Amino acid sequence: MSTENSKIVDLDRFEALAAAGEIDTVVCAAPDPYGRLVGKRLTLQAFRTLCLDGTGVNASSFVFAVDLEMNPLDLPVSNAENGWVDIRLVPDLRTMRRIPWEPTSLMVICDAYEGGSDALLEVAPRTILRRQVELAKEQGIAFKFASELEFFVAALSPAEAWQAEYRNLRMLSDYRSDYQVLQGGRDEWFIRQIRNLMPEFGISVESSKPEWGLGQQEITLDYCETLEMADRHVLFKHGIKELAQRNDLTVTFMAKPKIDEVGSSCHLHVSMWDAESGAALSWGDADQPMAPRFGSFVAGQLESALDLGLLFAPTVNSYKRYQPDQFAGTAIALGFDNRSCAFRLVGSGSSFRVENRIPGADVNPYYAFSATIAAGLAGIEAGLPTPSAFQGNAWDEESLEVMSTSLHESVDRFGQSKVARRAFGDDVFEHLHASAAAELRAFESGAVTDWETKRYFERA
Q1: 69 domain residue, yes or no
Q2: How far apart are CA 234 and CA 89, in angstroms?
Q3: Of the candidates 397, 268, 259, 365, which has an alpha carbon nearest to the alpha carbon of residue 319?
């Protein structure tokens, strides 16, 4: 499958659109540690001056060292001592595209560079993934990924949902309708906007369907090269939130919006390819489906799933999704088309791939793809044997390891991971670990939950 994107706007097309008066704004955006887009909106002249003729758009480094509330975390990359020093956002012109719901605007994904040099900012999510892609290429390997994202849709505007403190929201469906074409028809007025406009945004969509939860949807994206897939993932989430707001709807990609409701996953599909020839490397033959090198790659996934789990489950809420018998990837096992296993082999021939069912919809794809590659390369380097496929219900097999059940456990395991430290380097490793530890502290010592109030207010 070609990864050429016909919706990318090159510089000749940019100038033609500008001359015709069809565009007046360029959104320069970089993915932050939570998979959100941060950046600036530029006039056409400013884009030419700063980005095409200059060195990029200045921004504070603090955008890579904040929590979700935008509170600075005082990390080495950005703190009071260095004055929250500026970095440069430099557009990757291979990602520039029109915004279908903002017809006079373009958007371009940016890489983050250090302010005073031509060095990439090592802790930026896009840089972290670039480094893993480069390490794989040195071994003659490339990967293609696809994201399967689930999300919930509430039938009121974001402002109304905020005022309601996200409680007792009316959802887009009234009863469970997984795969139901009737509910799909009722939702079509909104979902068809996603299916039709996302390809215009340069994001190829395979299919859509109602999911099991009330108001829950699943959209499957076509696979492509690693970095482009991560970019498409964050652009897709951003686009859905934009479209929802324009339709007086609210979307959440929380892993577990309600404890008595199913969670939202982000199943990650990955296949292995020859970096030079583009030949598929995953498939062996009908007798031994996993080619030996791919078998070692998959074995590395199993070996490091818990140590790198932080990059698949990044929030306190992520772990509420790991409930028994709810199709979350809790049992660390490999199966052929077996949804009770954390890792599921699907397809055949050039379509043969492994699906990681551990991540929730709150995952940062740059981190998750990086963890996938790092674990797999470690498995290849160690020459791990091709793992055998588990048969039966993995959730009932007590001998299997299970996914960490709390952010606390994942932070501890990541902090001791030799694979993570070696793959990412000391500075990036410490940055990721410190950021997650700060999120954990904010929850453990900075919040009183509804559960605590209900349980202890009168009876304690």
Answers
A1: yes
A2: 17
A3: 259
142 and 185 both lie in a single domain: yes
Same-domain status, 347 and 419: yes
Q: Is 334 helix (H, G, I), strand (E, B) or coil?
A: strand
- Percent of the chain with pLDDT strictly greater than 90: 95
User: Pick the residue with more confidence: 415 or 324?
Assistant: 415
Dihedral angle over CA of 263, 238, 444, 360, nearest 10? 30
Pair (203, 59) in one structural domain: no
In a domain, 366, yes or no: yes
**Based on the number of CB atoms within 10 Å of its own CB, is 40 exposed (0-12), middle (13-18) or buried (19 or more)?**
middle
Query: Is residue 192 scored above 90 in pLDDT?
Result: yes
- What span, in angstroms and rounded, lies between the C-alpha atoms of 305 and 199? 33
Tokens of 17: 């659109």
Using alpha carbons, select from 62, 85, 241 the residue that is nearest to residue 149: 241
Q: What is the dihedral of CA 260, 212, 345, 311, to 10 degrees?
A: -50
Q: How far apart are CA 423 and CA 416, in angstroms?
A: 13
CATH of the domain at 226: 3.30.590.10
Q: What does the pLDDT read at residue 2?
A: 41
> Looking at the structure, do residues 217 and 246 belong to the same domain, yes or no?
yes
DSSP 196: H
Residue identified by tokens 């609210």 is: 250
Q: Is residue 460 part of a domain?
A: no
- Mean pLDDT over 291-305 rounds to 98
Check: CB of residue 89 under 8 Å from CB of residue 99: no
pLDDT of residue 361: 97
pLDDT tops 80 at residue 326: no
**Number of structural domains the chain divides into:** 2
230: three-class secondary structure by DSSP: helix
Tokens representing 44 are: 């056409």
- Using the 3D structure, point to which of 101, 121, 141 is the last residue of a domain: 121
> 100 is in which domain, residue-wise?
11-121
For every residue of 222-271, DSSP letters joined together read PPEEHHHHHHHHHHHHHHHHHHHHHTT-EEE--S-SSTTS---BEEEEEE
Count, residues in the chain:
460
Tokens standing for 273? 């390819």
Tell me, yes or no, whether 304 and 387 share the same domain. Answer: yes
State whether 223 and 359 are in the same domain. Answer: yes
* Average pLDDT across the chain, whole number: 95
Do 151 and 102 belong to one domain? no
Residues 351 and 253 in one domain: yes
Task: Name 324's Cβ contacts closer than 8 Å, sequence gap at least 6.
Answer: 330, 395
Structure tokens at 5: 């994107």
The answer to whether residue 2 is domain-embedded is: no
Q: How many CA atoms lie within 13 A of 150 on its CB side?
A: 26
Q: Which DSSP helix (H) or strand (E) runs through 110?
A: strand 102-114
- Count the helices and strands in the chain (H runs, E runs): 12, 15
Locus of tokens 């690693």? 226
